[in-house]
TrEMBL record:
The lineage of its organism: Bacteria, Pseudomonadati, Pseudomonadota, Alphaproteobacteria, Rhodospirillales. Keywords: Membrane, Transmembrane, Transmembrane helix. The keyword Membrane applies. The chain crosses the membrane at residues 9-27, 39-59, 80-111, 117-139. It comes from the Bacteria. Residues 10-144 form the DUF1468 domain. This is Tripartite tricarboxylate transporter TctB family protein.
Length: 152
């Protein structure tokens, strides 16, 4: 299934969604006043400005017929990427960052099936090694690099 939307409609909708997310998350922090701003003031302003820009782009696209061509959203690749994100969140505590990254990279490759198995495997292993080095060794994030059951 392919869903075709005007690019400006999609861009305006994304701006509004991101702006609403920023604005709503900023409300968890004290806003303060204009003379004594709290930590939630700036994200609220950014969210509101982004939302207004998004609404303007969105409404202008309908008034002008949606300039800029169309965006085709293919259901299968979008679903595969969504499943890969959920799999990452569920598998990370159980398998560690390196093995989870390999599995998610291989799963994500199903969104573009024209790749060879060797190419996907090689890229997955190299990227998982880079991810492990950067996040576990370099930044020292408290994420297990390997499955915890190997060390218990």
């Amino acid at each position: 299934m392919i869903l075709a939307l005007k690019k400006d409609v999609v861009a305006g909708g994304l701006y509004m969604a991101i702006g609403a997310g920023f604005a709503s998350m900023s409300l968890e922090q004290p806003i303060g006043e204009t003379t004594r701003m709290g930590p939630g003031f700036f994200p609220l302003c950014v969210g509101l400005i982004l939302g207004v820009i998004g609404a303007w782009v969105f409404l202008t696209a309908f008034r002008t017929g949606g300039a800029g061509g169309t965006v085709e959203i293919r259901a299968r690749p979008a679903a595969v990427i969504l499943v890969a994100l959920v799999a990452f969140a569920l598998l990370l505590p159980r398998l560690g960052l390196v093995l989870t990254s390999i599995l998610v990279f291989v799963l994500s490759a199903a969104a573009a099936p024209q790749r060879s198995v060797l190419q996907v495997g090689l890229v997955a292993v190299v990227l998982a090694a880079v991810v492990g080095l950067v996040f576990v060794a370099g930044l020292r994030l408290p994420i297990p690099a390997l499955p915890p059951f190997l060390f218990s």
